[in-house]
Design a protein that fits this description.
By secondary structure, the chain is mainly β. The chain has one domain.
Length: 91
């Protein structure tokens, strides 16, 4: 279901990693946006990427539907080298 959407680097904002759950195949990463203290969980970040609590990652969101400020969004997680690590839906 992953869309071929590219969120511009200028439309992304930085977040701090607050929790990392490591498994053999994936990592579960919880990030927190510093101003709002809002958190988002990404459950399928590749396990071979070194991510620790306190690291800074970047997110970008794409609204779904006609209401730009309400409703569901696709949220994408990026590293500092602009690699897309995972995505999730927020309802």
């Amino acid at each position: 279901m992953e869309a071929d959407v590219e969120i511009l680097e200028t439309d992304r904002f930085d977040c701090q990693v607050v929790n990392v759950i490591k498994t053999m195949t994936y990592q579960g990463i919880t990030i927190e946006e510093p101003l709002s203290k809002g958190r988002v969980y990404f459950g399928k970040v590749p396990a071979d990427i070194d991510i620790e609590v306190g690291d800074v990652l970047f997110i970008g969101a794409k609204p779904l539907g006609e209401e730009k400020n309400q409703g569901s969004m696709e949220v994408y997680l990026y590293d500092e080298e602009d690699n897309r690590l995972d995505w999730t839906l927020i309802y």
